[in-house]
Amino acid sequence: MTGEKVKYIWYASYGSNILEERFLCYIKGGQPKGSAKNYGGCSDKSLPIDKVEIYINSELYFAKKTKSWNKGGVGFIKTSFDPKHQTLAKMYLITKEQFIDIVKQETDNNGELTINFDKAIIDGSLVFNEGSWYGNLICIETQYDYPIFTFTNQENLTTVTRPNENYLKTIIKGIQETYDHLNKEEITEYLITKQGIENNYSRENLIKLFDL
Hints:
By secondary structure, the chain is of the alpha+beta class. The chain has one domain: Gamma-glutamyl cyclotransferase-like (Hypothetical upf0131 protein ytfp, Roll). It is 27% helix and 25% strand. It has 6 helices and 8 strands. The strands form 2 sheets. Strands 2-5-1-8-7-6 form a 6-stranded mixed beta sheet. The longest helix is centred in the C-terminal third of the chain and has 14 residues, at 165-178.
């Protein structure tokens, strides 16, 4: 099934949008807790018609510095996929138009944006915004007859950055919300190995974030 034949697609989020409350600021508009940025929302403010956990076989890491999260690093996944890596994510079933509006907000694009979903499905990925932090669209697979998309950098960034505590707290809450069978220790072990967190946070530091 090609992307243009379906109205809905899955958006798989591995960063702060794994927390539904934060993600809905992209849909409805608003300022996420702990973030300095206010989002305008999508033209179509309809809520996702479904949501489900997904494991992405690519490595999560943190890089760049964003004003939205007090100049801390933000999440990216590597452009290569390997079954030995599993990134915890949540995917939302939304329209293609909503996805484009979300991408525009994520990339600070106030102009027109066209995404060739068919090409991304055929090729597996599509650089739709050269030089943008999240200008690389990746088609992961298909589930329930809908293609699954996420976005990351077009390159594997080599300089990693410590993520801000509020950003990490948002991801932690999103993981707890999505993977309620995981306890604090298991989530901590998952995060402590990620580049950007490793060597910047101790296990004790991460555990404290659960209660803030």
